[in-house]
């Protein structure tokens, strides 16, 4: 360890980043808050929030956002868990190779993904052509510009985010535990439900919360693959900002979205697996 | 888990076959976009079809000869390089101060520095627009660089924190005992040992800024658009086959970054 004086001096090292974040991260956030109480000509107003209170559109979008985020989290978990389980069972070398298949989508632009899915899922896309060939000349199944499209896009986006923490908690388990249970006569199912699954819950909780938090503010995928009338809160911010030029309302929605996210971020810092997500700072 | 001891083939009971099939189905789903855009990019000019029926490099030629697309690509490169440098300058010392230091409020500082990862990007985008507008810096490369600095610095911090945890602090103690100052220890002992983590963090920061679309969409203007912003409006309004070529190039960039990044992280 460094000597004590040096340990205290370490505060100098975090100073530049902290000053930068205060100036370029916290002040912009404050700008959003103050804009939500300010009319376009600079006076104080409650109008932004008052409008949201009575707006049927906002109520619908807010409910949509929570519903889509919950659905995305559950569907992502259903896909990510079996994948993480499979990866955990592989020998280390093989797992390292297979991880490329998870890391590449993680680092692929969301625009590339959306574009690819729009081509494949379209009415004359690969999937519909395949279905037509198998089932027959039915009408195309609508896989885009609706809830299905958003769910496909978001699930694809979030699987890597969910796989990482679950894989970490699966790999942290001692391989002796299932072996001991097996020696004592437990079947594979019983070992999974009584040992493996409960011990991986920190990863599951961290991955699910992370997915849910990031879903709440999702913008690109609902905008490109979702239904025109199935908006999420981020899209509504954009709508009020650009289309109707009503900045107080746009900022008020952003503030509510921020509050909603902060509540769940607070929760994330309190659960055991949250540390793996926040780099052990939480 | 029990991996590693028995060969994979031995697990081929019905349950093993089932879980392997499911896992590979999910892996294929994850790889689908890459498997779609690359073949499509070599399809003909007017084809928006997958799988393509002809082989042609015309889409790449069109991309490289269209002034608009090239200009946005150059802007993206400039901004991403700026944001990477900024994130490294701020993030590497910050990671050191978080991992090695002890002072009151350390946890709160660390949480604050990492919080841009979790704050909804749209809120930050709106805030950056209002903020930059207050000193007329919307639509400038400078504005975009500092905005992307906010998004990329936390990732450099996380990567370097992980790297620092693998460096034996006794090496630093030895240097101080032999009379090196805090700064000398940081520059002559810690930084050289942290090289691969910094390299990986820098690569991730570059790619993150290069691909970032929401903040850029809010604060750029037509003349300073980045590649992702132009792609976004193109996908939204007039989907064009050139997008397949651009998507393939971006996929290739992602592949390079994730392979080099993973190798560098393993070394540290």
- Give the total of domains of chain A: 1
CATH architecture of one domain in chain B: Orthogonal Bundle
For the secondary structure, the number of strands of chain B is 0
- The backbone outline of chain A, from C-alpha atoms, is globular
Bin the strand percentage of chain B: under 5%
State the order of secondary-structure elements of chain A, H for helix, E for strand.
HHHHHHHHHHHHHHH
Q: Specify the CATH class of one domain in chain B.
A: Mainly Alpha
Chain-averaged pLDDT of chain B: 89
Helix fraction bin of chain A = over 70%
Percent of residues in beta strands of chain A: under 5%
What report would you give on this structure?
The complex is a heterodimer of chains A (282) and B (268). Chain A is an all-alpha fold and 282 residues long. Chain A has helices at 4-9, 11-35, 47-54, 56-89, 92-107, 110-121, 126-135, 147-171, 176-183, 188-199, 201-216, 220-225, 233-243, 247-270, 274-277. In chain A, 77% of the residues lie in helices and 0% in strands. Chain A is globular and about 75 Å long. The model of chain A has no long low-confidence stretch (mean pLDDT 90). The longest helix of chain B has 34 residues, at 67-100. Chain B has a domain at 66-237: MetI-like (MetI-like fold, Orthogonal Bundle). Chain B has helices at 14-41, 58-65, 67-100, 106-114, 121-134, 141-165, 169-177, 182-193, 195-211, 214-219, 227-237, 242-267. Chain B is 74% helix and 0% strand. Chain B is mainly alpha-helical and 268 residues long. Chains A and B meet through helix 1, helix 2, helix 4, helix 5 and helix 6 of A and helix 1, helix 3, helix 4, helix 5 and helix 6 of B.
